Amino acid sequence: MVKLNDKKYKAAFMYLLNKLEKIQGKKKACKLLYFLDFDFFEAYDESFTGETYYKYNLGPFTKYFEDSIKELEKEGYVETEKIRMSPAHGNDTNIYKAKKKLAYKFDDNEKRMLKRIARIYGVQSGKELEDLSHTEAPWQAVEMRQSIPYEFAYYREKQNLKE
């Protein structure tokens, strides 16, 4: 069973946040972490963060994200701004911004994967990442609200994961 590495999880999110300058939406944030964990698992046979992901209509959703963000806010690393995207959009959207860097020593494979995630997925919207996650075997293979096993990453069609 995979166990959350809380420090590494927060550090990975902060790395992506600093690299991208901001992350618009919880959906995008959760998908970035999903692709980080599942791409890393497929490449190196281990989870990057140990997060648990569940199947929801909007794609994989994390178990620990909201608690981790609250802790990062309390520790002064993250600022969350809530904005209404449009009157028709019923919920506020969270915009995450880094207030300072979080020091963490990633190994070379981890650094390469973080850079890859920021480069490939960071430029996409939450909706684009949602749609992409829906095309993947891990999301398709489980029932709604069920956890998504990391081993299902082997059934995706990814290439050059170690670039």
The count of domains is 1
Strand order of the largest sheet: 1-5-4
**Mean of residue pLDDT values:** 93
Biggest sheet features? 3 strands, antiparallel
- Determine the fraction of residues in helical runs and give it as a percent range: 40-55%
In what range is the share of β-strand residues?
Answer: 15-25%
Model regions low in confidence, pLDDT < 50 over at least 5 residues = none
Structural features:
163 residues; alpha+beta; 3-stranded antiparallel sheet; two-stranded antiparallel sheet; 6 helices; 43% helix; 15% strand; globular
Q: What does this 3D model show about the protein?
A:
- With 163 residues, the chain is of the alpha+beta class.
- The chain has one domain.
- Helix 2 packs across helix 4.
- The mean pLDDT is 93.
List the helices and strands and how they pair.
Blueprint lengths: L5 H15 L1 E3 L1 H19 L8 E4 L2 E4 L2 H10 L3 E7 L7 E7 L9 H13 L5 H9 L2 H4 L23
Antiparallel strand pairs: 1-5, 2-3, 4-5
Helix pairs in contact: 1-4, 2-4, 2-5
Question: What is this structure, in a nutshell?
Answer:
The protein is built from 6 helices and 5 strands; from the N terminus they run αβαββαββααα. With about 160 residues, the chain is of the alpha+beta class.
